[in-house]
Amino acid sequence: MLIDNTDFYDIYNLIYFCTACLVVVSALSSEIKKDILLQNELGKYLVVFPLVSLIFLVGFRGYDVGTDTRNYHNILWNNNIEIKFFGEFLFDLIALIFRFFNLSFSFFLFFVSFLFFTFVFKASKNYTDFFKSNLFITFFSYMSFFFFLSMSVNVIRQGVSLAVLLLAYSIWLKKGNISKIYLLLLLALSFHLTSIIPIVIFIFSLITKKYRMIPLLLLFYLTSILLSYFNFGFLNISPIILEILDGERRGDYLSGDGAEVYEVGFKPNFVFFNTLFLCISLYVRNKLSNPDLIIQYNILISYYIITSIFLFMAFQLAFSDRWGLFSWFVIPFLIAPLFYSAFIKGSIRIHYVLMLILIYIGFNFYA
């Protein structure tokens, strides 16, 4: 029996509440008993509860949960699929394999759910191992943000693609196998071609890491807010980009189509949200005690600033939230060192956990 729309969100809230209770208890123990190493180790086991729960919840959701779910059921199960082994072929190929073995669409959704949450979990584990911070709270931070659930039920292909990129980044951070990284990049592009945008931005951030780019990027960041406020953005330059794209389907992201259905224009809530976590990341950067980690963290901040600029310049367009995902999906990594990393100077940190809970409550019950 599949989980209908109402039950789905009730169960998700229940999973979140139970996870939040465990996270608060763990954080209090770290604050009071100072057993940070023990709690960080326990977190590697406690994270199994939300991980497995979410895989099954999202995997066995009803077809009325999320805008993409029913659309993909119609496209992938009610129509003939023609595979063209270039571009975004992987999602269709997986569906074709499941159909070949007469497996239902629900099994397909479960498999995609398993991929998405497993990639996020593995990437978070690699990252928290690198910063020696709490994996459980880091995964909980993903659950606290409005975009996380949307990535798993609304923009499914882009969600899986970004999760793959996150894993590739975490492997690169730990100086892992370069062939595996290239394979993951190809995998991400095979799910969703827009992954080329974060890849190019990250490469730029990596190349410029030797220069003091952050002050200049902050200036561009503020300028982009002003430009978007006065309704200047990608739509003003889209004819140039569309000519380069030469009619490719991704050009629809720059065409302004759908403005009559989706809210377009300056979004102060997105500006506030991104700026809040930019300020927090700059705070984390100043608190890091390891010079090598500061260099790596600077790359991530640079990436976040540039992708935030892209979001602000996309306010004129429908689906600007999809541009927002490029910056939002790294926010848990930006704040992960605050979750009892050995490399962060400072003591009391439980207020950051409480902040996550308040964000979840605010977006889900009052937004």
UniProtKB/TrEMBL annotation:
The entry's keywords: Membrane, Transmembrane, Transmembrane helix
Membrane-crossing residue ranges in chain numbering: 12-30, 42-63, 93-121, 142-169, 181-207, 219-245, 265-285, 297-319, 325-343, 350-366
Pfam families tied to this protein: EpsG
Keyword Transmembrane annotated: yes
Identification of the protein by name: Membrane protein YqjE
Organism the protein comes from: Acinetobacter lwoffii
